[in-house]
């Protein structure tokens, strides 16, 4: 599961397939930081991870929502761990350091990125707010446990 997840999240973050080293390092980091097993997460965290693993656009939408409304969740923690790994690998570090050379391109890039982020946040919120309510209701109906299935 972690290998598939690493591939999906790496594609979202840098648009590339992760190397064996990145996949192994990500798996180790997930185990060390308690992020390896979905059953350890809340209902909402499990759903956001399932959604984000399905593709680049879904990962973007789930990440945009979680960046604002669920900052300490499993998805954000996993993406941050993978971003740190990818940022320190020669083949993918350029994706984090790329900057437009002139002011017009920089402004256009910021507008495009901001627009894409706003749309992603809107779509992610439209899907994940009802999910969070359903997870909350399921958790409450099962008692005081936080791991509603």
Topology at a glance:
Elements: H1 2-14, H2 20-32, H3 43-52, H4 56-69, H5 74-87, H6 90-97, H7 103-141
Summarize the structure.
With 149 residues, the protein is mainly α. It has helices spanning 2-14, 20-32, 43-52, 56-69, 74-87, 90-97, 103-141. The chain starts with a helix and ends in an 8-residue tail after the last helix.
What report would you give on this structure?
The protein contains seven helices and no strands. With 149 residues, it is an all-alpha fold. The chain has one domain (2-141). It is flat and about 55 Å long. The longest helix is centred in the C-terminal third of the chain and has 39 residues, at 103-141. It has helices at residues 2-14, 20-32, 43-52, 56-69, 74-87, 90-97, 103-141. Helix 1 (2-14) packs across helix 2 (20-32), helix 3 packs antiparallel against helix 4 (56-69) and helix 4 (56-69) packs across helix 7.
Rg over CA atoms: 17 Å
pLDDT < 50 runs, ≥5 residues: none
Mean pLDDT level: 91
Beta-strand portion reads under 5%
Sheet with the most strands?
A: none
Number of DSSP-assigned strands? 0
Order of helices and strands: HHHHHHH
Tell me, what's the shape? flat
- Roughly how many Å apart are the termini? 18 Å
Discrete helix count: 7
